[in-house]
Amino acid sequence: MTVSWPSQKDLLAWVENDLNNWGRWGTDDQKGTLNHLSAEKTLEALALVSEGTTVSCARPVEFKAAVDVPRPPQHFMVSAGDTYRKGESH
């Protein structure tokens, strides 16, 4: 099964255009879409949970060079974590 991901350019255009809320709550608003959150809304959302499956909200990062990714990010590990024990500093 092949998964087809949108290009970085298409993804950013979607975020910038379709998900833009600038000015929705006034020019001096600091909370943005957090204006939607309330204790009541949190309880409503909690009532919708049926499976407990987690879903990532992370944006996919392309590590291969491409036309729209001329300088892909590099990932370096500082520590593998295999020697860590409780109370031990890195």
What does this structure look like?
- The protein has helices spanning 8-18, 39-47.
- It is extended, with a radius of gyration of 20 Å.
- It is an all-alpha fold.
- It is built from 2 helices and no strands.
- Helix content is 22%, strand content 0%.
Describe the biggest sheet? none
Question: Would you report the number of β strands?
Answer: 0
Work out the strand percent.
Answer: under 5%
Globally, the shape reads extended
User: How far is the first residue's CA from the last residue's CA?
Assistant: 41 Å
Uncertain regions: pLDDT < 50 for 5+ in a row?
Answer: none
The SSE order reads HH
Layout of SSEs?
Elements: H1 8-18, H2 39-47
